[in-house]
Amino acid sequence: MSLFGRGTWSETRRIGDLLRTETIGGMLLLVAALIGIGWANSPWSAAYRTLCAVHLGPLTLSEWAADGLLAIFFFVAGLELKREFVAGDLRDPRRAALPVVAAVGGMVVPAAIFALINLDSGALAGWATPTATDIAFALAVLAVLGTHLPTALRTFLLTLAVVDDLLAIVIIAVFYTSSLHPLPLLLALIPLALFGLLVQRGVRRWWLLLPLAAATWVLVHESGVHATVAGVLLAFTVPVRRFGLAEHFEHRFRPLSAGFAVPVFAFTAAGVSVAAAGGLGASLRDSVTIGVIAGLVVGKTVGVTGATWLVQRFTRARLDPGLSWWDVVGVALLGGIGFTVSLLIGELAFGPGTARDGNAKIGVLLGSLLAALLAAIVLRVRNQHYRALEAEESVDSDHDGIPDVYQR
Fold it and tell me: What's the CATH superfamily of 2-176+226-391?
């Protein structure tokens, strides 16, 4: 089997459409984060903190963003993951093994690096902070820098990030659930099962589905498990092959996730006050900041690239002849853009507004920026190489809308 071999034409078109959507979402995410950072470090920082602490019903604006809006994000991620493994090119177990193994490697190594740096600091609770990859940011950077990169690399990054998010949800549910209340968790199975029963029968009526989804979210939230887990569970009940419901929900909710939910969370979560953290110099000397930056930049690159090499070393799979290991390194560096979920885990590990949470946020921001810059250097060089090849591979001699290379 060829690692990063050419996928099907339908999958190539779908990934291209998805990249265009995520590029816009990534830009909105960046703008929202910059506004939050700028406001939190301006003379009007008190107004920013007051806004984030405004109560809307039982939760503050920040809590609604982290617990409520991110559930929409994970619902879309869950749909994408199920689609990839049920109807996409990754329904072949041999193809699916690579991104899964790479995602695991890309989480284990950063966590180990953070733990080693913070062994004596008392901050081991934040070990999972540098393990996540931000789908919107990573795909946005890839779409801008890698316009001519092979689709297989884009599919790999997308799947890697989605699997990464699923593993992050497992980590949040298992390691960052401080108090578990079994009764609400068991009761959540009732609306979840009813939601699943309806969607399995092709029901699309929002006035039936939305209350059940909301009830599932409320009960999971009350159980002590992070409420975003409800989004993934709901997504996994949606059929992929029948009724087109997965595509329908993705079409409806992806713009809401990328254009509103994630940017609002970024605005509330990224607004760390550098002065409150003791200044940038003091933060850069803190073991939490160092651990997060090293985990994202070094850990992700070594973990993803190393796991990919191990797949080749111990299986019959081989890197596609048209690709270079520099392509894998470039994509692995993009995996170090950990923003949305990394910020969330940092808050869960250290508590919102604490000094260590502030240092973790600074580490996430700087580590993600450094990973993006290094990925840009590698991928721009590789992009020039593939630009020359693309002209040859885009020939459509029979004018049927499908390049000849996909019909050989």
Answer: Na+/H+ antiporter like domain (1.20.1530.10)
